[in-house]
Amino acid sequence: MLKQGLELKQTQKLSPLQIQTIKLIELPIQDLEQRIRKELEENPVLDEDVQSSSEEDEAPREVSLSEYKEDDSIPSYRLRSDNYCKDERPQYNTFSVKESFTQSLQEQLGYRNLTEHQYAVASFLIGSLDDDGYLRRSIDSVVDDLSFRANIETDEQEVLDMLKIIQEFEPAGVGARDLRECLLLQIKNLHKCPEVDNAVKILKNHFNEFTSKHFQKIMTRMNLTEEELKAAMSKILKLNPSPGGQIDDTYTDQAQQIVPDFQLEYRDGKLILSMPRFSVPELRVNRKYADILIEAANSSEREKKEAAAFVKKKLDSAKWFVEAIKQRHNTLSSTMQAIIDYQHDYFIDGDETHLRPMVLKDIAEKTGFDISTVSRVVNSKYIETHFGIYSLKYFFSEGLENQDGEEVSTRELKKALQECVENEDKHKPYTDDELVVKMTEMGYKVARRTIAKYRDQLGIPKARLRKEL
Predict the structure, then answer these.
(1) Alpha carbon distance 277, 261 (integer Å)
(2) Pairing mode of beta strands 283-285, 388-391
(3) What is the pTM of this model?
């Protein structure tokens, strides 16, 4: 039997302005500027104001967005300048990364005397390297990819020949297929001497024992004294296991810049926040469309009214866009100020031990924004301080209690753990259980599994692998 009834549901529908604002909040400042340019290109109603004061005195028929009124009639307009920043590209600081890894290798490839076909194969190989400089794909898979993706017919021998050429490039060790090959590529460039010869033999014949730090086995099998083994090990430990990171450990395709959204200064005992890169260009109605509005204001012709309706639709879009930019600015500014207030002691001197435990919820409660909004603000944003440039994500960390019941940040705990390991006797490094004891002596209440977790996050190997001769 069918039943019919009414049910009341409450749903929240985002307005075009809210949707626009959410999208803009996520963008770092560089992407925001590109988005403004895109809006100028796609909305035919808009022009960027480049008028000087002398030209404004002549009152050309252009319309400032602030003078557009959302009602059914089409008002007449006069020209008046808004008070937005006139400096289109103000001075700002950047955090630059070096020449990209791929660019450097391609440049070195250009100096080799290769046929066009060989160059194409070698260039494809360079593009197949991982960020750290390794080729972790099999040669036959590279051959297949060259054929199917680049339409280049080749064989395994030619790919190997081109790989050998790349392995001669700087930085030494690039193009290696594993750690052992990477180290051998580097050590062959060292001046020949007994300790280098022993280092080569260790890498070639006793690599598993070397990585496991079974030093006694190496000394027995190679008939070395402890001093001879130390001398050989010192040569190996100076080699770079990640040659790609020497040029650029962040980007691979091209050199890029990080432009901080915020700048924090410490002056006269006060923390002063600013957004020096932020500026909204003065957007104006194109003269042609201003004429349409003005002419349609006193006209009853259908075509002119339809044209005016089109202009009004585009004006609505433009107003939403500019308002969304303003709301983005206010949201970012309020969120960053809340972070600074919450971590005030840290921002005075940049001492990590002064970082309080802080999660997104803490800032959401201070600002009144949703956690999702705070997350969007934090994502891909940077601040320039008097002690360096930092991602906003850096200031967030969970907390644990110390023995006095006070909450301390995980970053403080990790720093204390790092200091314990750095100060240990490398002949008898601390086990995780011993690290728990040491951390307890320092006033931190940490479980063994937490020690193991933080040790892994810090890239600290187990005690056996930290042991030295």
Answers:
(1) 7
(2) unpaired
(3) 0.50
- Do the beta carbons of residue 439 and residue 420 sit within 8 Å? yes
* pLDDT of the residue at 145: 86
User: Which amino acid appears at position 191 of this protein?
Assistant: H
Instruction: Give the percent of the chain with pLDDT over 90.
Output: 26
pLDDT in tens, 412-425: 788 888 888 888 88
Q: Which of 39, 32, 12, 22 is nearest to 317 (CA)?
A: 39
Query: Can you tell me the distance from the alpha carbon of 109 to that of 112, in angstroms, rounded to the nearest whole number?
Result: 5
What's the CATH class of domain 399-466?
Answer: mainly alpha
More confident residue, 28 or 250: 28
User: Structure tokens of 1?
Assistant: 């039997």
Instruction: Report the range out of 142-151, 202-211, 398-407 with the highest average pLDDT.
Output: 202-211
Closest CA to 438 of 409, 406, 463: 463
- Residue 401 pairs with which residues in a beta bridge? 407
Cβ distance 186 to 172 under 8 Å? Answer: yes
The Cα 310–Cα 198 span in angstroms is 80
- As a whole number of angstroms, the distance between CA 211 and CA 179 comes to 10
pLDDT for residue 55? 41
Q: Please tell me the distance from the alpha carbon of residue 442 to that of residue 421, in angstroms, as a whole number.
A: 13
Domain locations in the chain as residue ranges: 16-97+258-396, 99-170, 172-239, 399-466
